[in-house]
């Protein structure tokens, strides 16, 4: 009998680069994932890893969640999908659910898309249509996706990338408060006030002030490096938007569904945005995204000018409802707060014991650890950060780096993580940090990853 051939990571990865375009390829580690469950993933060669990356904070409910699998299995024999041209029940019931859980004490409606970027693109479009204006306000180092308007409105893309894609020119980037790297002698709240003042001064310029359709923001800037703004900054944004008639778009694609210790991160700040965008976790693994907002804004896009064929996907909507019910039933937002406190405590111990750990910050289980050359200079070190994640990967923990200097370890495990798993992961991190400090991880590993730059 012919023996079954064992497929290796390396062989498939070679094919990947032969057949798949570089524009969608952002690969940190040379492993092909075969299975995922809870807080663990397994590669095709059978190696097991604890997952602190969670497909970029996309599986708050844990991988391959039993309740979601059950709901899908029950539904799949009836239908996989039928969209747009006729009605189906799950997308209607999901919209009702979203309208009820998304903050905002006004009448709301929902639009569906398939990715976070597409949802943001749609939110910006309806804001343009609603206001009849053309300027978009965003923030430096923000990330909102790769669709045209949102690539144009994401501060994290380099000027040459914007140029290459002929980005939408009417986008203005404001400064987002980075309280760790704020100017010396200024308190975080005061720093927020200074930056709000800069926004106001821009809007007071006639050509801009009357022309801004929307300000899109992350309530905690994720890819910028887990930047938690002072409360008064977000409250101030609301006031500015009211004063100038600007649509305030809260991008909860990374922060939503319990990640930060609240169902939505905006709840930490006590304001109501006009529009909230959802993605990643919404579909519990299915490609689903949504724009939820004031009825009159959502309905300002003319019929058949938004969305795509599979928007409001049948099985995706069923998965989404099962995932949201799981979060609510198990109070995963509270769990994120509890486990987040524990994990932050453990990470702060690492900070106390290691010269290259500059800062530990975040909310709930959305945590960033800044890696620096040393505590005196606090000079960001993306090289050391990359070496740490490489050594951690070798020892069974998956994390990535991000942040405006590429030096922040991204810590975003499923919200279902147990203390023992946290302890094991922190042990791996400690060993990786020590190895990097002792010069045991060579420069050659840097070329093995396509890391956040
Ligand atoms: C805050 C935020 N907005 C939007 C997006 C884009 O989502 P997607 O990759 O599903 O298009 C991301 C993805 O990383 C994100 O973190």
Task: Tell me what you see in this structure.
The chain is 39% helix and 16% strand. By secondary structure, it is an alpha/beta fold. A 7-stranded mixed β-sheet has the order 4-10-9-8-7-5-6, sandwiched between helices. Strands 1-2-3-13 form a 4-stranded mixed β-sheet. It is globular. The mean pLDDT is 95. The protein binds pyridoxal-5'-phosphate. The site of pyridoxal-5'-phosphate has 15 residues, from helix 5. Keywords: Aminotransferase, Pyridoxal phosphate, Transferase. Belongs to the class-III pyridoxal-phosphate-dependent aminotransferase family. Its cofactor is pyridoxal 5'-phosphate. GO terms for molecular function: identical protein binding; pyridoxal phosphate binding; transaminase activity.
Question: What small molecules does this complex bind?
Answer: pyridoxal-5'-phosphate
Tell me how many strands there are: 15
Strand order of the largest sheet: 4-10-9-8-7-5-6
- Unreliable segments of 5+ consecutive residues: none
- What's the CATH class of the largest domain, please? Alpha Beta
> Per CATH, what is the topology of the largest domain?
Aspartate Aminotransferase, domain 2
For the largest beta-sheet, the strand count, sense and barrel status come to: 7 strands, mixed
Second rung of CATH, namely the architecture of the largest domain: 3-Layer(aba) Sandwich
Beta percentage is 15-25%
The sequence of SSEs as H and E is HEEEHHHEHEHHEHHEHEEEHHHEEHEEEH
Counting DSSP H or I runs of 4 or more residues, the number of helices is: 15
Question: Structurally, how many domains make up the residues?
Answer: 2
Termini separation comes to 50 Å
Mean pLDDT: 95
Please estimate the helix content. Answer: 25-40%
From the alpha-carbon coordinates, what is the Rg to the nearest angstrom? 22 Å
Helix-strand category: alpha/beta
Organism: Fervidicoccus fontis (strain DSM 19380 / JCM 18336 / VKM B-2539 / Kam940)
Cofactor: pyridoxal 5'-phosphate
InterPro entries: Aminotrans_3, Aminotrans_3_PPA_site, Class-III_PLP-dep_AT, PyrdxlP-dep_Trfase, PyrdxlP-dep_Trfase_major, PyrdxlP-dep_Trfase_small
GO molecular function, one term: pyridoxal phosphate binding
């Amino acid at each position: 009998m012919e023996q079954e051939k064992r497929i290796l990571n390396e062989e498939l990865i070679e094919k990947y680069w032969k057949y798949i375009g570089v524009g969608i390829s952002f690969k940190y580690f040379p492993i092909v994932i075969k299975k995922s469950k809870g807080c663990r993933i397994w590669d095709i060669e059978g190696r097991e890893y604890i997952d602190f990356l969670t497909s970029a904070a996309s599986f708050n409910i844990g991988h391959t969640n039993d309740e979601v699998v059950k709901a899908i299995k029950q539904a799949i024999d009836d239908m996989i999908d039928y969209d747009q041209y006729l009605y189906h029940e799950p997308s209607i019931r999901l919209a009702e659910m979203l309208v009820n859980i998304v903050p905002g004490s006004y009448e709301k409606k929902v639009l569906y898309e398939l990715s976070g970027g597409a949802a943001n693109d749609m939110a910006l479009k309806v804001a343009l249509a609603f206001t009849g204006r053309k300027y978009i306000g965003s923030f430096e180092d923000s990330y909102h996706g790769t669709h045209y308007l949102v690539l144009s409105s994401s501060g994290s893309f380099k000027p040459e990338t914007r140029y290459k894609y002929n980005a939408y020119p009417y986008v203005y980037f404001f400064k987002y408060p980075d309280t760790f790297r704020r100017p010396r002698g200024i308190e975080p709240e005061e720093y927020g006030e200074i930056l709000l003042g800069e926004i106001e001064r821009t809007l007071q310029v006639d050509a801009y002030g009357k022309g801004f359709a929307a300000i899109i923001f992350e309530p905690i800037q994720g890819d910028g490096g887990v930047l938690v703004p002072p409360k008064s900054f977000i409250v101030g944004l609301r006031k500015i938007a009211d004063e100038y008639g600007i649509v305030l778009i809260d991008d909860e694609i990374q922060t939503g569904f319990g990640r930060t210790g609240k169902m939505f991160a905006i709840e930490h700040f006590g304001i109501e945005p006009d529009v909230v965008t959802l993605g990643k976790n919404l579909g519990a693994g299915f490609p689903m995204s949504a724009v939820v907002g004031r009825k009159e804004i959502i309905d300002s896009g003319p019929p058949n000018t938004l969305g795509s064929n599979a928007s409001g996907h049948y099985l995706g909507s069923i998965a989404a409802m099962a995932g949201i019910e799981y979060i609510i039933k198990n109070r995963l937002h509270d769990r994120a707060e509890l486990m987040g406190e524990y994990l932050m405590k453990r990470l702060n111990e690492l900070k106390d014991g290691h010269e290259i750990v500059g800062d530990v910050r975040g909310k709930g289980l959305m945590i960033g650890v800044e890696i620096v050359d040393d505590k005196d200079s606090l000079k960001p070190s993306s090289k050391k950060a990359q070496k740490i994640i490489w050594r951690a990967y070798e020892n069974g923990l998956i994390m990535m780096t991000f942040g405006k200097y590429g030096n922040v370890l991204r810590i975003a495990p499923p919200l279902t993580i147990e203390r023992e798993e946290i302890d094991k992961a922190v042990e791996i991190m400690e060993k990786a940090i020590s190895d990097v400090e002792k010069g045991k991880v060579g420069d050659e590993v840097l070329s093995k990853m396509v890391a956040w730059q």
